[in-house]
TrEMBL record:
<dbReference type="InterPro" id="IPR025388">
    <property type="entry name" value="Alginate_export_dom"/>
</dbReference>
<dbReference type="Pfam" id="PF13372">
    <property type="entry name" value="Alginate_exp"/>
</dbReference>
<feature type="signal peptide">
    <location>
        <begin position="1"/>
        <end position="24"/>
    </location>
</feature>
<dbReference type="InterPro" id="IPR053728">
    <property type="entry name" value="Alginate_Permeability_Chnl"/>
</dbReference>
<keyword id="KW-0732">Signal</keyword>
<protein>
    <recommendedName>
        <fullName>Alginate export domain-containing protein</fullName>
    </recommendedName>
</protein>
<feature type="domain" description="Alginate export">
    <location>
        <begin position="62"/>
        <end position="440"/>
    </location>
</feature>
Length: 458
């Protein structure tokens, strides 16, 4: 680990000096979405060469290189609500390096390696904390139509995906190990409408070096579209299908074939913030039927004319749970591949069988420093179903308790951006247990979490 840490520090110091006062576009969540073709005729400083390295005399064939170094310290106290469980910590590291080869205006090949490392935890690394070395992206993309306002492309290979607010399909940026899939995707976009259609498989992610195993079956398929209404906001319409051969809920373990139909409306600007999403799920869980749903509402207002530009927001989620254990039917909502931090940066419960009320306030103290404070109240939707982890996996049975209230999460976080490459974030979380946790954990206690993270992207 010391070698990795020294390498990370060296890279940060070198690139911070080299990239000062040079061109850098906004770095995106999905690195393959970045376009540096406008550097074709730019001055040839080190950073611009890194982002546009010609491979032909006419500069129509070129490479782009980039990557990331992320260091994080996280501390937990009674993380599973168990009294005297004590203090545990993790040192988390993420390293990424990518190369993007553009061959004319039609063809590109994108490759990315990721290394996620964990040390310190007395329980060893969690699956979302360590994947020592993996091919994160490796795809070829052919642009059948490549006009400024009309694009159609086919992408084949291993690829990260992220849609909407990340409630159902997320790359999972908050964890050290990001999600990826392998398969094919067709993408169409115009100024007011876009749609992706895809058939993908997920890997079994292991801790070692190049040891992830493909499933050799379609685990995720569907289509995701976005419609822009000028001055009226944005609509997302989507269908998602998944298959899991050993899906586990409180109802039992069976083969799961599930279909999700959903719609999202979102709008920003003019002070008001809207984000409203609803989804219905049907399908088969073993021999029984699936009948599940969710609704999510987020409303907010940004006071642009006030000092610190305060943003006051309220989220409210209703997420269905199973109504009767053992009847063969399943009403538990499956969040598919969600981003783990939707209910806090170290959430202890996930988006299944849940009702939550989540007010939060954000302040821009300076142009570089933002702070946020949150309170999240959590209840079970059904008293006949248990609680689930942020990934959607089953956590603890709930049929032994008649109480709904799970607990209250208090959060305080801060983010500081030194420049477009280097950022620092930290936060603390306190979870006060409710009657449900007191019923299922004999020696219960409130849990605490805090972390600090430095991230450098180039």
């Amino acid at each position: 680990m010391k070698v990795y840490l020294r390498l990370a520090i060296l890279m940060v110091l070198c690139f911070c000096g080299l990239t000062a006062n040079v061109y850098a576009q906004g770095i995106k969540l999905m690195r393959y979405d970045e376009d540096y073709s406008n550097l074709k005729d730019s001055s040839r400083n080190f950073y611009n060469v890194l982002k546009f390295l010609p491979f032909s005399a006419d500069r129509k064939i070129y490479f782009t290189f980039g990557g990331e170094v992320r260091e994080e310290f996280g501390g937990k106290i009674n993380e599973d609500w168990v009294k005297d469980q004590g203090f545990n910590y993790s040192i988390l590291q993420r390293y990424a390096l990518y190369a993007d080869l553009n061959i004319g205006e039609r063809l590109r090949v994108f490759a990315q390696l990721n290394s996620a490392l964990e040390s310190g935890s007395k329980y060893g690394p969690a699956p979302v904390d360590e994947d020592q070395l993996a091919v994160q992206n490796l795809f070829a993309e052919y642009r059948m139509i490549n006009q400024p306002e009309n694009k159609l492309a086919l992408r084949v290979g291993r690829q990260e995906i992220n849609y909407g607010s990340g409630r159902l399909i997320s790359v999972r940026e908050g964890t050290t190990v990001r999600l990826y899939f392998t398969g094919a995707k067709v993408m169409y976009s115009s100024p007011k409408f876009s749609i992706d259609a895809f058939v993908l498989e997920s890997d079994e992610v292991n801790f070692g070096i190049f040891d992830n195993r493909p499933s050799h079956q379609a685990n995720l398929w569907g289509a995701y579209s976005n419609l822009i209404i000028p001055k009226g906001g944005n609509f997302d319409f989507y269908y998602l299908g998944i298959r899991r051969d050993q899906a586990r809920f409180e109802e039992g373990i069976e083969k799961e074939l599930r279909h999700t139909l959903a719609m999202r409306y979102w709008k920003g600007g003019g002070g008001f913030i809207y984000n409203i999403e609803a989804a219905y799920q049907l399908g088969k869980f073993g021999p029984g039927n699936i009948d599940a749903w969710t609704t999510a509402i987020e409303l907010g207002y940004v006071f642009d004319d006030l000092r610190f530009k305060p943003s006051v927001n309220l989220r409210n989620d209703y997420i269905s749970g199973d109504q009767k254990v053992g009847d063969g039917k399943l009403q538990t909502f499956n969040p598919l591949f969600p981003r783990g931090g939707y209910f806090g940066f170290n959430p202890l419960i996930g988006p299944s069988n849940l009702i939550d009320l989540h007010p939060y306030i954000t302040l821009a103290l300076t142009g570089k420093l933002t702070v946020q404070t949150d309170v999240v109240f959590n209840w079970r939707y059904s008293v006949n179903d248990g609680i689930y982890r942020p990934s959607g996996n089953f956590n603890a049975a709930g049929s032994i308790s008649n109480h709904r209230f799970i607990g209250t999460t208090y959060l305080l976080s801060a983010d500081y951006s030194f420049n477009k490459h280097l950022s620092f974030s930290c936060g603390g979380q306190y979870f006060k247990v409710g009657r449900f946790i007191k019923d299922i954990v004999p020696l219960w206690d409130n849990s605490q979490f805090f972390n600090a993270q430095v991230s450098f992207k180039f």
